[in-house]
Specification:
7 helices, 493 residues, six-stranded antiparallel beta barrel
Length: 493
C-alpha cells in the first residue's frame, strides 16, 4: 500500500512536469512563428512632396524665362496707305463790326448767336426797369410750346456740343449755355414780338427797340480780337491762358457806350496758324490746301499763303469763302490739313532696320557669257599673274547711279578688291558703302534682308514702294521688330 501511494505521487508530479514542458514547448513554437512576420513599412510622404516641388519649380522657372524673353512676332505685308494729316490750332479772323448801346438798361435779344440778320431786323430791346423780359416770358408761356422743328434744332446743338466737348476746354460749356439760352429766347419770342407794342402799351413799359443797320451774322461775344489784322499777329496771340471772352445775354444790365452786339458782314474769313521750319518746307509751293474740321464734320478747300507776323515768326494763312456762320462763336479752332496719300505697301516702323552695302557703279555690272546672272569682272591674283574673272553678285538694290551689294566675309566681293569696267581698262576699288533701310523677310524660315524705298511715314507705319525687283511683295512675312533678330537667323523649320 505504501508503494502504491509513492507511485501515485510520482505519477502526479510526472504529469505536472509533462504539462509544464508541453506548455513551454507550445509557447516556444508560438514565439518562433511570430518571429517569421515581417512588418510592412509605409512609403514616406516626403519623397512625393519633393518630386512635386521639383516639377513645380521647373515649370515656374520656364514661365519666368518665357515671360522675360522678347517675343518674335511676324507681320504680313499688305497694300495700303497711311493717314498723315497734320493737326493745328488756328486763330480765326473775320470782318466784325461792333455796335455799342446808346442808352443804359436791361437788354433782351431776339436773334440767337450765329443767326443771319437782314437790314432793319430787330436785334434787341432795351428797357430801364427790366420788366419787359418777364412780360415776354409770360406772354410766351400763354402760347403753345416749342415746335418739333425748334426742339430738333436744340437737340442738334446739344449733340454737337457733347461730341466736341473736351476737359481741356471747359469754358466752352458756358458758350454753349449762352447759345442755347439765346436760341430758346428767339423761339419763344416769335409770337410775343408780334404783340410787343400792345403788351408794352397795356403794361406801361417804356423800352427801346434796336434794329440792324446792315446784314450779316449776329454775335454777342467780345474778346478784343475783332480788329486784329494778319500783319498784327504774333506768337503771343495764341496764348490761350491770357485769352478772355465776354458774352452778353438777355437780362444783362447794359451801360451806355458798352458793346452790345456785333455783326460779321462778309462770308470771307481766314485762319492763321504758326508754322515750323518743317511746315514751311512742306507747304512753300502750295497755293491751296484741303482742310478738315472734325468737330464740325466739314472738309473744304482753302487758299493758302505764308506771311511773317509782327514778331518775325512765320505763319500760315487759310482763306475761306463759306462756312463763316458755323464758326461765329469760335476764335480758336482745331483743324487738320490733309496730305496726299502715297499708295504702296504698308509696314510697321519697328520692322525697319539698316544694313551697309558696297556701292558699285552700274556700268561695271554685266552678264556673264550665257548666264543671266548679274556679275562683275574681278581681278584675281595668283602665281601666274593677274587674271580677270567673272564673279556673280547678288544685287540688293539699285538706283540711277549705283548697284548695291551686301558685304560679308564669305561674299564674292570684299573691301579692297578691284573690278574692271567691261570693254575698258578702267578699274574700281570696292570699299565705298552706304547704309540702306530694309526689313527681315522670313518666307524661307530664316531672316533675309530686303531693301525698301520709303514713300511716306507717320509715327507707326511706313508706306514703301511696290514692285521693286529686290524688295517686298504683298503677303510677304517680315519680322515685326527687327531689333530682336539678326540676318540669317533661323526662326522655324
Amino acid at each position: 500500500q505504501g508503494l502504491n501511494v509513492a507511485w501515485c505521487g510520482r505519477l502526479f508530479f510526472a504529469n505536472k512536469i509533462e504539462k509544464k514542458e508541453s506548455l513551454y514547448s507550445m509557447a516556444s513554437k508560438k514565439r518562433k512563428k511570430n518571429r517569421k512576420i515581417i512588418p510592412y513599412r509605409r512609403p514616406r510622404a516626403d519623397i512625393g512632396r519633393l518630386i512635386f516641388g521639383v516639377i513645380f519649380l521647373y515649370l515656374l522657372i520656364n514661365i519666368f524665362i518665357y515671360m522675360g524673353h522678347d517675343k518674335i512676332q511676324f507681320y504680313e505685308v499688305a497694300e495700303g496707305s497711311i493717314v498723315n494729316d497734320r493737326p493745328y490750332t488756328g486763330l480765326i479772323l473775320r470782318e466784325e463790326q461792333i455796335y455799342n448801346a446808346e442808352n443804359s438798361g436791361y437788354v433782351n435779344y431776339y436773334l440767337r448767336e450765329g443767326k443771319r440778320a437782314s437790314v432793319g431786323a430787330r436785334i434787341y430791346s432795351l428797357d430801364e426797369t427790366g420788366r419787359l423780359d418777364s412780360l415776354l416770358k409770360e406772354n410766351s408761356e400763354g402760347e403753345q410750346s416749342l415746335s418739333d422743328e425748334n426742339l430738333s434744332d436744340l437737340k442738334k446743338q446739344l449733340s454737337s456740343f457733347v461730341l466736341a466737348r473736351s476737359d481741356e476746354n471747359f469754358g466752352a460749356i458756358y458758350d454753349a449755355r449762352y447759345a442755347l439760352e439765346a436760341t430758346v429766347m428767339e423761339y419763344s419770342s416769335f409770337s410775343a414780338l408780334d404783340q410787343l407794342d400792345k403788351i408794352a402799351k397795356e403794361s406801361g413799359v417804356v423800352f427801346e427797340q434796336v434794329t440792324s443797320p446792315q446784314s450779316g451774322v449776329v454775335s454777342y461775344g467780345f474778346d478784343s480780337y475783332e480788329s486784329l489784322k494778319p500783319e498784327d499777329v504774333e506768337m503771343a496771340s495764341f496764348n490761350r491762358s491770357s485769352y478772355t471772352k465776354n458774352l452778353r445775354k438777355s437780362g444783362d444790365l447794359i451801360k451806355s457806350g458798352s458793346p452790345v452786339y456785333k455783326i460779321a458782314s462778309s462770308e470771307n474769313w481766314s485762319i492763321v496758324f504758326p508754322l515750323s521750319e518743317e511746315d514751311k518746307n512742306l507747304y512753300q509751293d502750295k497755293s491751296s490746301l484741303t482742310v478738315e474740321f472734325k468737330d464740325h464734320s466739314i472738309e473744304t478747300q482753302a487758299a493758302f499763303s505764308i506771311f511773317t507776323g509782327k514778331d518775325g515768326s512765320s505763319f500760315g494763312r487759310l482763306d475761306f469763302s463759306k462756312y463763316m456762320a458755323q464758326f461765329i462763336t469760335d476764335r480758336f479752332v482745331s483743324f487738320e490739313i490733309r496730305q496726299d496719300q502715297a499708295r504702296g505697301l504698308k509696314i510697321p516702323v519697328s520692322a525697319v532696320t539698316e544694313k551697309n552695302f558696297y556701292q558699285i557703279p552700274k556700268d561695271y555690272v554685266t552678264l556673264g557669257g550665257d548666264s543671266t546672272d548679274n556679275g562683275v569682272t574681278k581681278e584675281v591674283y595668283d602665281a601666274g599673274g593677274t587674271n580677270a574673272v567673272f564673279t556673280p553678285i547678288d544685287i540688293g538694290f539699285s538706283d540711277d547711279e549705283f548697284c548695291y551689294v551686301a558685304g560679308s566675309d564669305d561674299g564674292p566681293l570684299k573691301a579692297g578688291d578691284y573690278i574692271v569696267k567691261p570693254d575698258s581698262q578702267e578699274r574700281y576699288q570696292i570699299g565705298s558703302t552706304k547704309a540702306l533701310k530694309g526689313v527681315y523677310n522670313i518666307n524661307k524660315g530664316y531672316t533675309v534682308f530686303k531693301e525698301i524705298e520709303i514713300l511716306d511715314s507717320n509715327s507707326e507705319y511706313y508706306t514703301i514702294k511696290q514692285g521693286s525687283g529686290y524688295g517686298l511683295s504683298v503677303y510677304d512675312h517680315i519680322v515685326m521688330d527687327a531689333s530682336l533678330v539678326t540676318e540669317g537667323q533661323i526662326l522655324y523649320q
